[in-house]
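Quick one: structure tokens for this chain, please?
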Amino acid sequence: MSFAKGQFDILIALYAGGIAHACKKYLKTGGILVTNNFHKDAENAALDDEYQLISVLHRNKKTYAPVHKDSKHLVDSLKKANVTKYIRQTSQGIEYTEPDDYFIFRKRNAKERLATPKAG
């Protein structure tokens, strides 16, 4: 199956590593990437200057709520994300005991990337 570059408005990559990088070309400029930090996909997207972290969906009890704070707080949330504490080994493989935070990125255009480079 082949897809055209920039064909999709949204890319959802949950519990699948490497998707943010491998499928980036299929996401439109201004498109949205929703990912968790399984296999460090969210961390890798945060390091990629084509993506801008714009929000985090955090679970509080039984609901998810967006966290719209300054970019430092969003990056701190990303650093605290540790999927392994939510994984339990069972006789049928692994299972997730609690949902992860979900990180929302927007694909930036070249002009935006030049204006606001990633902090190193």
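Strands lie at 8-13, 27-35, 51-60, 63-67, 87-90, 93-96, 102-107.
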